[in-house]
Amino acid sequence: MQYQFDFTFLAETWPRLLHGAWLTIQLATVSILLGFVIGAVCAVARSSGTPAVRRLVGIYVEAIRNTPMLIQIFLVYFGLSSMGLKISAELSAALALTINIGAYCTEIIRAGINSVSRSQIEAAECLGLSRLQVYWHVVLLPAIERVYPALSSQFVLLMLASSVTSQISAEELTAAANLLQSETFRSFEVYIVIAVIYIALSFMFRAVFWCIGQLVFVRRRRLGTAI
């Protein structure tokens, strides 16, 4: 049996795939930015907060890390609808992805915070720095610099995992591919194209994170290890 490849459908359908790729980029970017903020706050809270706060953050992190992302998306999308809060599939997807990446960022950044020597903190306190200055300059920034490669990899994985939001009809890249293959009946060709696009997006995100690392982390720029 010989299979004849046919990619002629791309001539008319590429704008739909481009729109889906753009929505994927938007979902990933919004989720990464908000999730990073959540992760940084929760990491600080879990490292030096009160026992009750540390316990609450721990419950959040373990609940997210031990359940499938698809279930989390369903809980947000259908759960909010059940409570009478009607929001779009795209907004539900962004919210679920943000909650998910926030938990992973919490643990990654917390690992960086724990790697900061206690003597450095004590030295900063002896110099008269405020608690906020100590956490920002001595703890948080060096911690993020140390775990930046892990954060970058996690962010790329989130972009790829955003494909599961097609299950709630978010019109991202995978959803566009599913609709396209149902119309053209060229499943093999459609998903080959989608795989190539995801690979291109992964390299694009890695390049962006490399540039951010070069701009933000001077020491890594000198060492040539921004990601």
Notes on the protein architecture:
The protein is an all-alpha fold. The chain has a single domain (10-223), classed as MetI-like fold, CATH 1.10.3720. It contains nine helices and no strands. The chain starts with 9 loop residues before the first helix and ends with a helix.
CATH architecture verdict: Orthogonal Bundle
How much strand content do the residues show? Answer: under 5%
The SSE string, one letter per element, is HHHHHHHHH
Shape type: elongated
| Rg calc | 21 Å
Uncertain runs: none
Which class best fits the helix and strand makeup? mainly alpha
Distance between the termini: 46 Å
Outline the secondary-structure elements:
Blueprint: H1 10-48, H2 51-65, H3 69-82, H4 89-114, H5 118-126, H6 131-161, H7 173-184, H8 187-216, H9 218-223
Helix pairs in contact: 1-2, 1-4, 1-6, 1-7, 2-4, 3-4, 4-6, 5-6, 6-8, 7-8
